[in-house]
Input
Amino acid sequence: MATIRCTGPACRRIARLPCAVAFRKLDEHEHFLWLDYAGTNLGTSFSLPANKATTQLDWQIAAFRTALTWYHTGGYDQKASTAASAVQSRVDSYEQFDAYLGWAGIENLTLYTKVENLFNEKPPYDASFPGIRAPYDFTQYDLRGRTFLVGLEYRL
Output
């Protein structure tokens, strides 16, 4: 597996904003030494995209903090069954963005709002999930669509 992380001063020099990047690429034989699942859904109960990444851009001024998070799940070859492969040869990649705004103007208290799946993107169709409520691989994606959260956090 190759992992790239950027959270230090070099990353902060990008547009002078703090950011964090995490990227995973599975080698062909990393997850199961005896099987080549990376980049497919060949496993009987799961999919294993070869690429997954999370990137977050944060900005803070005074008591306000805002963040934009991007989640990437790479596409994978459709190999779950002969029937699914006949309908679809590859499951598309997926991108999701989340937005966060918080205010920490009172000691130990943060008020925040967050929008998950900002653009209300549906996961890619996966022909190996027929007959289930949604034809998506729920092991890889959040199927709830856009979600609005409002909350507070108090630290003792």
Summary: The first helix runs from residue 9 to 12.
